[in-house]
Structure formats: structure tokens, C-alpha cells
Amino acid sequence: MRFSLSRWLRPEMSECTVCGRMADARSNAVPVPVRHPAAREILQQLCMGCRSSIPWIGAPVCRYCGRPEFCPDCPRRQDKQMAFCRCAVRYDDRMRDMLALYKYRGSERLEPVLAAMLAAAFERVCSELGGRDAAHIFQAVTAVPLAEERLDDRGFNQAERMAVSLSQWYGVAYLPLLQRVRHTEKQSLKTRRSRIVDMKGNFVADRDVMGRIPFAGVSRFRILLIDDIYTTGSTVNECARALKDALAEAGVASEPEVYGALWARS
Ligand SMILES: [Zn+2]
Ligand SMILES: [Zn+2]
């Protein structure tokens, strides 16, 4: 650790994980909408500027996708495989930069910060399901898988990393239940309609991993799905379809429910 005069003079100050500036006690005036102590602590280490610039989604307007304003997409969506999902923040320029720094430039220090932010979406899902004890609400947490070629380039799946953090904090088993079937072109090159069509049949559930879900005595079977960005919702929808089909086929649950927690809503 490099020597910091202000740290030496004022030991109650610490360096902000995001920007590196000193965070002081005044930062605590900016509230953090997360209850879990480990996640709170991570967010409380951010400076006042970084903390106050997080565009939290305080009140979702769309009950399905968690969008914080009127949503023209969900009411007309015919095929809803997910129960609902919630997103922690709006995907604005700052959030886009932060995610890019982590995903493409490998800034590992941001990983716990992103996971701690995602915790806000997860806790909202739990409270809307009427409870605070995540371990009793969900049988497993899983993540949207990356295409293999992208996994090779990047070396990690950001959604999986975030899901593992949540699993550890809230005591819900993490299982890599999903696999990608085939590669689709980079999504950003496509129109909304062709993206939705292309996603069909893109994911399958891994039967061996499915066998590790603790089933006994479960009245309602719920799985939580994690991803970083919600854009059209087609990715989470197709993942939910693959999970539900596989669970029903394997006789695990006749009507399993899949919920989503995503880091940002674009
Ligand atoms: Zn900062
Ligand atoms: Zn919506």
C-alpha cells in the first residue's frame, strides 16, 4: 500500500474503491439501499462523489422488468417465462464506464462493488416475495452463461462472479445450471426483433448440475437468475425457459418459478 499523508493524519479516512480519492465520514450521509452487512460495508467505502452518483432504482414502475419508468415492452410481451426481475441501477454513462473498466480492462477491485450494488436488486426481489431470508425463498442461484469464445477472451463471466458473491452473502447455493447452445453474433449489431428470435433455443440446463439442487420438502420451487444488464429481456426470458423446461421434464417441480436480479436496466 502506498504511503498516504491524509490516511496517516486522519486514520478514519480510506481510499474510495472506485476512484481512489479519500472517502471520509461525510460519505455516510449518502444512504446505501442494501441491508446485508458485508455488501453495505463495501458500498460504504466509496467516496461521497461516487456514492451519490450511483443511479439506484428506488421504485420500479414496471412490475415485470423493474424499469423505473413506464415500460412499453413488458405489457405487450406475449411470452413471459420469468416471474419477474429487479434491477439495481439505471445503466447511465457512469455505470457503463464502470462496467467496461471491470469487464474489458479487468479492474478486479470493482468486482465486489458491482456485486454489492446487485445486492440491492436481490434484496428487493426477496422483500417483494414477502421475506428477508433468501435461503428459504430460493433453492438455487445461477447466472446467464457467457459464450465460450467470449469466456476465452475475457477469462471470467461477470454474471457468475456476482452470483457467487450473492450466494456467499445470503446462503443460497450457487449452481452453474445453464449452458449456451450456440454462438450468436454480438447483440448490439441486431434489431430488437431479430434478437428475440435468435435467443430461442440458445440455452440449455445442465442435467448433472440440476441433480445437485436440494429438493427435499420444497413446496415452492424458486430459482434466482443473475445477469449484468437488462436490455430487451430476451436473454433472461430464454434462460428462464430452459430452466423451467428442464426442471419440469426431470420431474423436479411441475411449476418452477424463475426470478431475476440484474445489476443494471438499460
Ligand atoms: Zn470515489
Ligand atoms: Zn418492463
From TrEMBL:
InterPro entries: ComF/GntX_DNA_util-trans (IPR051910), PRTase-like (IPR029057), PRTase_dom (IPR000836). SUPFAM superfamilies: PRTase-like. CDD domains: PRTases_typeI. Belongs to the ComF/GntX family. PANTHER family: DNA UTILIZATION PROTEIN YHGH (PTHR47505:SF1). This is ComF family protein. It comes from Cohnella pontilimi.
